[in-house]
Amino acid sequence: MTIFRELSQHLLDIFENGAKAGASLILLNIDEDFSADRLTLELRDNGSGMPAEMVRRIADPWVTTRTTRKVGLGIPFLKQAAEMCGGEFGIESELGVGTRTWASFQHSHIDRPPLGDLTGTVLCMIVGFPTLDVLYQHAVHDVTGGTREFKLDTRELREVLGDDVALSDPEVLGFLREMLEEGHAMLYGEGTAPGAA
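Below the sequence we write its predicted structure tokens.
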């Protein structure tokens, strides 16, 4: 049994659920509010959605729609981590519309898992599901009231690249990695990795 030690691993797990549900677009929102001591993670997809009964049972570790293992662990562990760190977890879904999953944490809580490798996680999302579009938005609000924001939208990249160049092209991946690293450096300050936040 694998227990995710970083929040980015939970995000990737939930992202994969949305991709397997037939989503064409998944939104990843991360909001870090240092003045309110709050970290909020949100994933929204336009996939097939789930019936109400499944939504009610989804946080049960013995419930899964997967065929490769009997136990679904990603969502129950994320819920447990959020609640142990002074936060909340929620999921809402509508058949034929999609699913929204979110979790909040006390940012400074001693037991809050680190965000982890956000650059690698977002690149995995893009490369692992090349026909799926990703909108990644990340905001950091500092204690003085200032806000820094970063956004990456693969729909905009596809418009620029046209149909001839795939997002998985090595040169495009190099550009995306550099863009993400620069974005995270801007959010956190030079030399500070998001995984430490």
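Confidence is low (pLDDT under 50) at residues 66-72.
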